[in-house]
Amino acid sequence: MLGSAGTAKCVASLITYPHEDIRTRLRQPPPTDGPPKYTGLWRTLRVVIAEEGAQSLYGGLSAHLMRVIPNSAVMYAIYEAALRTNF
User: Fold this and answer.
1) Could you read off the pLDDT of 6-31 as tens digits, one per residue?
2) How many other C-beta atoms are found inside a 10 Å radius of the C-beta of residue 73?
3) Most distant pair of Cα atoms in the chain: their distance
4) Which helix (H) or strand (E) is 39 found in, with range?
């Protein structure tokens, strides 16, 4: 059960992490000496891939996985345990 929850969260994170990275970049304050580098989702995606390569969208993924996989596994285990008890 824990392995299934961890695997599901790992796959979900691998699919959605580039969106999280782009969202983080869009939250950065704009430079004071010119126009903002990142202005929208698709433009940011194109700029990041052109300047840094597609692999940069997964920077920091290992730290993210170390945080979310155990959390997901424990939450699922507690949820299942709560369902099995009659409150």
Assistant:
1) 899 999 999 999 999 999 999 988 88
2) 19
3) 62
4) none
Q: Is the pLDDT of residue 43 over 80?
A: yes
Helix axes 2-26, 61-84, angle to 10 degrees: 130
CA distance 28 to 41: 13
Q: Domains of the chain: which residue ranges?
A: 2-84
Alpha carbons 75 and 68: distance in angstroms, whole number: 10
Residue 81: Cβ within 10 Å count? 10
| Residues with Cβ within 8 Å of residue 5, at least 6 apart in sequence | 72, 73, 75, 76, 77
